[in-house]
Amino acid sequence: MKIMIFVCGEGLGHTSRCISLAQQMKTAGHEVLMGAYGYSKDLIKKKGLKTAEIIPEIQLVGDSGSLDLKSSVIATIKSGQFMGIGKIHRTLKEFKPDLVISDSYYTGIFFAWLRKKPVYLMVNQSNMEEFFMGKGILMGCLGNVTKRFYTRVFRKVDGIIIPDFPMPNTICKYNLDFEERVLNSVFYSGPLVGKKYKEVREAELTRPHVLSTIGGFGYREPLFHKVIETARLDRNINYTLLSGPSIKPDKYTDLPENVTIMEFIDEQFPYLKASDIVIAPGGHSMMMEALSFGVPILSFPDMGHIEQENNATSLEEEGCGKRLEYSISPEKLLEHIHQLIEDDAYKDKTQYLRSLSHALNGPETITEMLGSKHMNQNSQKNI
């Protein structure tokens, strides 16, 4: 079977879970082509997966830990990137997929429909209009248009995949709001994680150890500095900080001995397995990876990013970690670090989710489900 996967490249969360799914599909004998852009495309290529370049649908803009949605919309329009939309149609025409999976990339869905291909949408948010709330009349109107748009998409796709734990353990649950008429097409696959816990050899790190993935966007840099200041307060706790593509580690010369800074790495799982806590933004895929490895999370959602804020709230309610604010002091952050290290309740819950993730085996489950549906559809055509 030939499968096309479209990837939303804003942040690496969509990319990491699509890589996991594509690798499993290749292992199962399917031919996979991934549509991606920017550093998302570069990372996919490094994994040895076949890739076609597509256009970005939105350009994110923010400052000092806050996502500026209005500026993001304006920047997207000014970029003129929609002029390259024909590439998507040509790619589908040349590749001739049997089915299409779109991870939050809606342009790919429409062109797949034009070519009468089965389409499955992968999302961890179905209430995107919340992004536009409280931002003025114009943005409110845009939010209403957005809701009508994706509501129609949900009705027409062949299936909706939620790459999260099934209820009641769903971390993205506050971001989900489906009409009753589409609920039968919603499937909770479990996390899509690139490596299984048992097959990962943990990194040689001194414990207790904190892994910080704060870095990716420049507006997170103040929090990056705050984690370093927190590390100075207790030299018995060790830290590995991933700087991300926007922040180079060689600019930090005065570091305490318990801190190591690394550039973005393709393979985080050995570090996850060797850590006691993860400090991360509110991105869904990073949460799925940490929880699938049994590691509690201190989450700092981007201010004004409703999806991340909802994820972090659910994370705390489920007893898997804490939702924190960018304004926190280093002293208070250290208190939370001690709490997550010393309170066994957090470890017990995350270890349970690690076992659940293993049992669900999201990438394999989705691959088998879609393969079975495709065979059934072909059988019906031949009757």
TrEMBL record:
InterPro entries in the cross-refs: Glyco_trans_28_C (IPR007235)
Superkingdom: Archaea
GO molecular function: hexosyltransferase activity
Glycosyl transferase family 28 C-terminal domain span: 252-346
UniProt record similarity statement: Belongs to the glycosyltransferase 28 family.
Name the record gives this protein: Glycosyltransferase-domain protein
